[in-house]
Design a protein that fits this description.
40% helix; 13 strands; Arc Repressor Mutant, subunit A; seven-stranded mixed beta sheet; D-Maltodextrin-Binding Protein, domain 2; two-stranded antiparallel ribbon; 22% strand; alpha/beta; 3 domains; 302 residues
Length: 302
């Protein structure tokens, strides 16, 4: 059996106070409880730590040697508790964040300056990936994901939702015309994704349903690449508001087929291990991100 902190505290308190009753008063315990803890400690160590006389308790040679070690252990525990308490008040340490390239660029990066000013002792590592990663393998604390999540052992904290729209640049429309109905898309250049295939099902009402499977003329693995292709007039794309709201506001992209577009709101989540108590640096980042996303014009909640 291994010794416990309670047993070490009982031992040092008896030495400091000079008696079991004094130790009991110091620790807020009963004398019998302190005596039993001291007895268990001696049994586990297989030595006598204190020699009991009718008038006082005296340290044995082994007890004097062990006392210094016991004090060091208790001091280290106390220091660790103090450090953790300070980190709760002033979060610190390394925080590794993973997000898709578009989400990192359009949502996370603009918020980093404010976060660093609020929490200057937190170091950040930002990693971009457009595929689902293994958090443990990639040493990631928090992954930010938009769209549906696969079932997993991860805990998912919702941060908001972002609407999908059909978009094209004014330059493309000037050269190829504006589609006025879903059927018109057959004569246009459509931009899509290499994977997953669900991203090539656009939220448009048509005679067979509310999802239109498209065959892209040009495909990319990253939403940011698709956005850039749309901006340069290479075709029509279906993209999320979080990365295109400013483009629409400033006229770089134009929404198409709005009357027949089904309202699809992509959920945005922060994911992290379910069985891990959140460190303060993680929880304050999630709180900050959720607070700031809620203020964005594109973000929808509820």
């Amino acid at each position: 059996m291994k010794m416990t902190l309670d047993e070490l505290q009982a031992f040092t308190a008896v030495v400091d106070s000079g008696s079991i009753s004094g130790a009991a008063e110091q620790l807020g315990q009963t004398a019998s409880g302190v005596s039993r803890a001291l007895g268990r400690l001696e049994t586990k160590l297989a030595v006598t730590l204190l020699r009991r006389t009718t008038r006082r308790l005296e340290l044995t040679e082994e007890g004097a040697l062990f006392l210094n070690q016991a004090r060091q252990i208790l001091d280290q525990v106390e220091n660790a508790e103090e450090q953790m308490a300070r980190r709760l008040q002033h979060p610190a340490g390394l925080l590794r964040i993973n997000a898709s390239a578009p989400f990192m660029s359009h949502v996370v990066v603009p918020l980093i300056g404010g976060f660093r000013r609020r929490y200057p002792d937190i170091e950040l590592e930002l990693h971009s990936s457009d595929r689902i990663i293994d958090l443990l393998e990639h040493r990631t604390d928090v992954a930010l994901r938009h769209g549906s999540l696969p079932d997993s052992t991860l805990h998912a904290r919702p941060l908001g939702r972002s609407r999908l729209r059909i978009l094209a640049s004014p330059d493309y429309l000037a050269r190829h015309g504006t589609p006025m109905a879903v059927e018109d898309l057959a004569g246009h250049r459509l931009l899509g994704f290499t994977q997953p295939e669900t991203l090539n099902q656009w939220p448009l009402r048509h005679p067979l349903g509310e999802r239109l499977p498209i065959v892209p003329r040009l495909s990319a693995s990253s939403g940011e690449t698709v956005r850039q292709l749309a901006l340069t007039g290479e075709g029509i794309a279906c993209l999320s508001d979080f990365m295109t709201a400013a483009d629409r506001t400033e006229g770089r992209l134009v929404e198409l087929l709005a009357p027949v577009t089904v309202e699809v709101l992509q959920p945005i989540h922060a994911v992290y291990y379910r069985n891990t108590a959140l460190a303060s640096r993680i929880s304050c980042f999630l709180d900050y991100l959720g607070e700031r996303i809620a203020r964005q014009a594109w973000a929808q909640h509820g």
